[in-house]
Write a structure and sequence with these properties.
The chain is mainly alpha-helical. The chain has five helices and two strands, in the order H-H-E-H-E-H-H. The longest helix has 43 residues.
Amino acid sequence: MLKEFKDFIAKGNVMDMAVGIIIGAAFTAIVKSMVADLINPIIGLFMGGVDFTNKFIIMGGDGASYASLEAAREAGASAFAYGAFIMAMINFLIIAWVVFMLVRFVNKAKETAAKEEEAKEEVAAPAGPSELDLLTEIRDALTSK
């Protein structure tokens, strides 16, 4: 059973998947930073400095007012944090767009490489006689006898 497990782990698909997950986690950190540190401030600039993360409604009637969502949560208040949800949706859409653009770029690069490889194979193929030339030679050889 140990040998079978070792063979399973050593297969290329499992190792490729592991590398993909590790690279994906690193890429996620890059994309999150891009969204949080670059894109969200630009969106906030165009929307008049609106930061949705601190938009919330206190559930229940204790009448307390909190300066931020974090302060409400620390106080134990039940907060309906619709702003955090809106920001999560915006972040998701931005991340999905970035991943789409990356996949699109990779697919175009693969297509270009495949076309170049096909062109090299076509050039490398020897230019021998065509089928018609061979049939003509056979006909001529048969008629000359």
